[in-house]
Each structure stands twice: as structure tokens, then as C-alpha cells.
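Hi all, a correction to my earlier message: I attached the wrong file for D-alanyl-D-alanine carboxypeptidase. Here's the right sequence:
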Amino acid sequence: MKFGIKHINRVSVTATVTLTAGAVLAGSAFASTAHAATPPAPKIVAKGGFLMNDGTGKTLFTKSADTRRATGSTTKIMTALVVLSQKNVNLKSKVTIQKAYSDYIVSKNASSARLIVGDKVTVGQLLYGLMLPSGCDAAYALADKFGSGSTRAARVKSFIGKMNSTAKSLKLKNTRFDSFDGIGNGNNYSTPRDLTKIASQAMKNSTFRSVVKTKSTKQKVTTKSGGYRYMSWTNTNKLLGSYSGATGVKTGSGPTAKYCLVFAATRKGKTVIGTVLTSTSEANRTADAKKMMDYGFKI
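and the right structure:
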């Protein structure tokens, strides 16, 4: 009988030790899994960056997110937003391309949609010319069309006023525009956080979403003589087609702005949207964006 009791005790002790060891191992494995589930925040080359969950508005990553910087052609997101926010905007309305638009491109050595003087281009087509090849001529045409006033200068000034009013309505305190395309006069700035909010607002518009996710397009426009020609435009955003789930948004560059990118992607129903400002090259701004989105989808 005593032998039996000792045997039982020995078995119990062994079982207890085994269970305890198992629990420790399981706990250790769980801890490792939990630790692995929170990846380290990415290191980016850009001087400023911001990323948020577009569905919840939750901030996912920041780097000098509220420091004002030049924005380059990412300004054109606001240009498009103002156009699409007009009451009963008619995307099929035609705009006659003026010599002033092409002269502006030449004088500023600006990025161009290669619009031809005398052609009649629809508002919808101008949005593609604005956002894909980053046409400053398309931006000028839209500002001239949707601004108010009896002169072109007055209409452009009015349009830029609408850009600033829209920024104010979005409660953006670190954003100001003095141009319709980002080629400013020293008073055109925003922040990674503010630009992301502008893009988030713009992405609520189905036309905007369709335009900025387009890799390339061929548009039939009416010539001065009443014939037609095709305009081919390719998106400068290298994320499209190279990053799974990428849906936009807009590149930017300039002597002061360096290399900028506002970006968005959706995976498994989760959309992240963000901005990098003042990166050092096209390749680095794209790499920065990919790192940030990878991080955003993991956390």
C-alpha cells in the first residue's frame, strides 16, 4: 500500500513538472508571438511623414508630421478637390486651351500635359491631365475655368482663394496655397498630416478615386478645326502596379519641396493613406511610402 502511494506521488510530481514546463514554453511562445505582432516603426529618408487608417482616422506613423514644408505638385490634390466640390460640376463641359497656359509652362519650365492651344478639352479630361502627368497647364486651365472674375488674373486669384477656404473648412491650420499647381511665390506650404487629410477628403469623391488610380489613359479631344486628336497621359505615381492594393494619390517635386508623395492603398478592407515630404529622390520617396504602408497594414 505504501509503495502504491509513493508511486502515485511520483507520477503526480512528474505530471506537475511536465505541465509547468509546458505552460512556461507556451507562455514563452505566446510572448514571442505578441512581440512579433508589433513591428518597429519604419525609418524613412523623407524629412516629414504621416500615415493614418483612412477608415478610422487613427494615426499610425508620424515624423515631423506638423512641420510646414513646400508641397510641390501634391498641391494639385487640392486643385482637383476644389473643382470636384463645385456645385453641379459638369465633367463634360469643354474648356478651350489658351496660349497663356502654354506660355506659363514655358516660363516656369513646369511639368506639362502637353495641351495644345485651341483644343477643346473637357473638365474630366483636364483632371486626368492634372493628376497623371502633373500638368501645370491643366491646373491653369481649371483655375481659369472655376475661378470668378472678369480677367484671367482675377479668376486665378479667386480659385486660389477657394483652395484656402477649403483648407480652412477642413480645419487645417498649417496649410496655405498661393498657387494652383505648387509653383508658389514663397507662401505655398502644408504638412504631412494636413496633406493626408486633404487627400482623404478628395478620395471620398468617386471621380477623384477613378482618376488617381489610373496608370495611363488615352483621351480624345476636339481640335481647333473641329477634328480630333488623342492625348496620352501616364501616371507619375510608381506605386500603381508595383505595390499591392495601391490606389493613388499624387507625386510632387521642386527645388525646395525636393521629392514628395501622397499615397494610399487598400488590403483586406483596410485602407491606409499618408504623405512623405522632402525626400531625396523619386526612388526614396516611393521606398518611404512602401515602408510606411507595410507598417500600417501590420499594426
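Sorry for the mix-up. Residues 46-296 form a domain with the Beta-lactamase fold (CATH 3.40.710.10).
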